[in-house]
Design goal:
The chain is of the alpha/beta class and 327 residues long. The protein folds into 2 domains: 191 residues, inorganic pyrophosphatase (n-terminal core); 121 residues, Diaminopimelate Epimerase, Chain A, domain 1 (Roll), CATH 3.10.310.30. 38% of the residues lie in helices and 19% in strands. Strand 11 and strand 12 form a beta hairpin. Helix 1 packs across helix 4, helix 2 packs parallel to helix 4 and helix 4 packs antiparallel against helix 5. The protein starts with a helix and ends in an 8-residue tail after the last helix. The structure holds manganese (II) ion. Manganese (II) ion binds next to loops.
């Protein structure tokens, strides 16, 4: 792994960048992309930013219209690709193009074995990749402005759940305060991220909550939504990964899980914990993430997957072990 100084030096010495984030972009992914995009543009660098998937429709930060959408035809050519907030494999439909880049820089804060790229900076102790980009811009001597501040602040708000998650600390709040001083509207930014839901989603949420399941005296709580349910409520299943935050609200919950059948036979598992390490549980099922917030993509019959995962999670709560194979 490289130091942030080495990343800064590399960016300083090169030109012509394409910045990409993860599939199903979230506020931290987008904030990191745009913060770095505006910063490098300010340095006079040629820079583009590309996403495989469309953005959440209700965000109104400056610069979101600069993000280009590409599918499998994406090819970086001579440009250096900078992957932020994920590993290069998680960039969705553009990932094979990303992995073919002549030069690849990876900046992330997700726990994993090792990064992929010519330069890699992975800092799981950071609350958001947007915080890393804040530090990087500072090392590059780039002065902040309202556009950069909006992107980075929104990224921090997204990954800290509006400063409610365990990754919130005094330094994160100081950085957020400095960014807010650029004339941001924190109430509007938070509402766009967390509280602008279409009617169909709220009705689906009601359905999912009324079918909430628990085990282990409520230490384990889960909900599952089938592809047919999503169709019935007219909701895009990929735009509902925040369902899990509602399951986590149960007072007794140690592990909260949501199973979303986003297309027939393809199930996204979202995991949240208040103290237990659910990154280990996600890795067991081929996924990953943070200690208290992780996920995996599963293939198979929804009910069978729910049964397999919940019994593994029950054992994990009881014994602290996932299975005999170790994790
Ligand atoms: Mn993030």
């Amino acid at each position: 792994m490289n130091s942030l100084e080495q990343i800064a030096q590399f960016l300083h010495d090169h030109d012509d960048f394409i910045i990409v984030g993860h599939e199903g972009p979230d506020p931290d992914s987008l904030g990191s992309m745009l913060g770095l995009y505006f910063g490098l543009t300010k340095l006079g660098k040629r820079c583009r930013t590309v996403s495989a998937d469309p953005l959440p429709p209700y965000l109104s930060w400056p610069g979101l219209d600069q993000i280009e959408f590409r599918g499998e035809e994406f090819s970086p050519g001579e440009s250096t690709v900078i992957v932020v907030d994920c590993e290069p494999q998680r960039t969705g439909a553009i990932s094979s193009g990303v992995l073919q880049a002549k030069r690849l820089v990876n900046i992330d804060h997700h726990q994993r074995g090792r990064g992929v790229g010519d330069l890699v900076y992975v800092a799981p102790e950071e609350a958001a990749t947007s915080v890393i980009i804040y530090r990087l811009l500072s090392k590059l001597g780039i002065s902040l402005d309202k556009e950069i501040a909006t992107a980075l602040y929104a990224g921090i708000v997204g990954d800290t759940g509006s400063f409610r998650h365990a990754n919130t600390n005094s330094e994160v709040l100081r950085i957020a305060g400095e960014l807010m001083d650029f004339g941001l509207e924190p109430a509007r930014i938070a509402r766009e991220i967390f509280a602008m839901q279409p009617l169909g989603f709220l009705r689906l949420l009601g359905f999912a909550l009324s079918n909430l399941q628990t085990a282990q005296d409520g230490k384990l709580v889960w909900m599952s939504v089938s592809y047919g349910d999503f169709l019935r409520y007219g909701v895009d299943p990929e735009a509902t990964d925040h369902l899990v935050t509602y399951a986590r609200m149960l007072d007794s919950a140690e592990i909260a899980m949501v199973f979303r059948e986003v297309s027939p036979g393809l199930v996204r598992l979202g995991l949240r914990a208040n103290n237990v390490d659910v990154a280990a549980l996600a890795r067991h099922f081929g996924g990953g993430g943070h200690r208290l917030a992780s996920g995996a993509t599963l293939h198979g019959d929804l009910e069978e997957l729910v049964s397999t995962v919940t019994s593994t999670a029950e054992r994990y709560i009881l014994t602290g072990e996932i299975d005999g194979r170790g994790n």
